[in-house]
Amino acid sequence: MRRWKYGRVGSGWQVEVTGLLLETLPLVDRGRLITRHVLASVLVWSSAVRGTLSSACRRTGIGVSDETLRQAIVASLPPVDHLPRLLESSLWSCQSRLRRARRRRGFDIAIDLRHQPCYGMPQTGLFAGQPKLGTKLFWSTATAAIVHHGERLTLAIVPVTRNRMDEVLDALWSQLGKLRVKVRRLLLDRGFYGAEVVTWMQKHRVSFLMPMIRRGHQSTKRSPGTGTAPFFVRGRRGLTTYTWQQRRRDRHKVSVDVAIVPHPDRRRRPLVFAYSGRLPHGSYCRWLYKKRFGIETTYRQARQSRAWTTSRDPRWRRLLIVLSFMLRNVWVLTESNAPAIPRSQRQTYPHFLQLLAEAIQDEWPQPPRGPPVPNHTNFGSTDSCLCRSAIDSQSAQIKLSVFRNERKWMDPG
After folding, report:
1. Which DSSP symbol is given to 149?
2. In terms of pLDDT, which residue wins out, 97 or 253?
3. Quick check: 137 and 126 in contact, CB under 8 A?
């Protein structure tokens, strides 16, 4: 059986996590039973076990109903613009680790969009996009994360409500500036491909790499190709440039460098990237863009610590999302500060959440429980039929007589 080396980490970081919530969120006391510390511990426990407020009330003995607890939390919810500070507060302890990036060339930062489907009537705070999973409305979020091995921290998070990716980049860039993180290159998702985003990055002089979307028609014998389709011809490779005119707003021309890399499967179309900055060779783009998929791991792990809710309140929804990423950052910091041990003995994220939930639950008063109900029904005795069918006495007598006759028939004596 595997022996866990860090069984005490959950209780140690439980005080740290609840302290971050008390310092960042405007939690207030709602009476003698519901204090600020109780509200913070309920939020952390719900995220650690992916539970609800109702399950938290059943596990605790604070003596209030789930509706009273919900009203207390809703009254203390901050505005949506205030929630990224919760993520920033969990990163101040890792400033010494991030200083290495300032001394050297910096970190590669991955930026991605995540759409959580929303089913119901439209309301403020939702992102309207293409149909997916049976809906056009989503709770969309954009995050910026370090994709360096062993330091995959989520540095910035922004709610997305409309299709203006340049504004999303501007908000993420301001949060990265507060942390004083030196950015070497931005690895963007294909959802950011557009003239506004390229113009924004060229204005801020930021190196970037993102896949190019295939648009237009390929060249034929009668007509030349249009758009970016000629770059996706099988067998083509190399570095080139591409210029196009913006369709909306000021309609200015945008020029970008293009890297055409052969696909590992030669029968498929090549991989085409839009980039800025120096590259040793074209195939380097394929290796570099592989690092961006580390942000997909952060989304998968953050989903393991996101509490369950059916509320349509944007503040409550966004708080649960930010809290899930904050817990993951705390786990990454615990693993980075731990000594080097074999991979099989490291503390996994589900185990860390389990220890955290147990540490919080030990501090709560246990709910009162009544005396155990004795089980008088013993199915191994001859009177078991009477106990199971005590309502109908006549049928019970018939069953008992049949059972005794069968025993006499089976008994050779």
Report:
1. T
2. 253
3. yes
18-23 contacts at long range (C-beta below 8 A, 24 or more positions apart): 18/44, 18/360, 20/86, 20/89, 20/90, 20/326, 21/86, 23/89
| CA–CA distances in Å: residue 239 to residues 24, 190, 217, 231 | 48, 19, 20, 10
Nearest CA to 155 out of 143, 147, 167 is that of: 143
pLDDT value at position 187? 93
Half-sphere exposure of 171 (CA within 13 A, CB side): 17
One-letter amino acid identity for 70? R
Among the listed residues 63, 61, 62, the one whose alpha carbon sits nearest the alpha carbon of residue 367 = 61
Tokens of 278: 């120096």
Assess contact for 114 and 325: CB atoms under 8 A: no
Q: Measure the CA–CA gap between 327 and 331, rounded to whole angstroms.
A: 6
Rounded distance between C-alpha atoms, residue 175 and residue 87, angstroms: 10
Burial class (CB in 10 A: 0-12, 13-18, 19+), 225: middle
CA gap 239, 264 in Å, rounded: 18
SS3 153: coil
pLDDT at 340 over 80: no
User: Which amino acid, one-letter code, is at 68?
Assistant: T
Q: Which residue has the tokens 């801020």?
A: 204
- pLDDT of residue 210 exceeding 90, the answer is yes
Q: Which residue has the tokens 């790499």?
A: 209
Q: Is the Cβ–Cβ distance between 314 and 124 less than 8 Å?
A: yes
User: What is the DSSP code string of 187-240?
Assistant: EE-GGG-SHHHHHHHHHHT--EEEEPPP-S----SSS---TTGGGG-TT--EEE
Residue 252 CA: distances (Å) to CA of 2, 192, 249: 62, 18, 8
Which is higher by pLDDT, 409 or 97? 97
50: left (phi over 0), alpha (psi -120 to 50) or beta: left
Say whether pLDDT at 124 is over 90: no
CA distances from 151 to 89, 324, 329, 343 (A): 17, 17, 9, 16
C-alpha to C-alpha distance for 323 and 171, rounded to whole angstroms? 19
Half-sphere exposure of 121 (CA within 13 A, CB side): 2
Helix axis angle for 36-49 and 9-24, nearest 10°, is 120
Token digits for 388? 């199971």
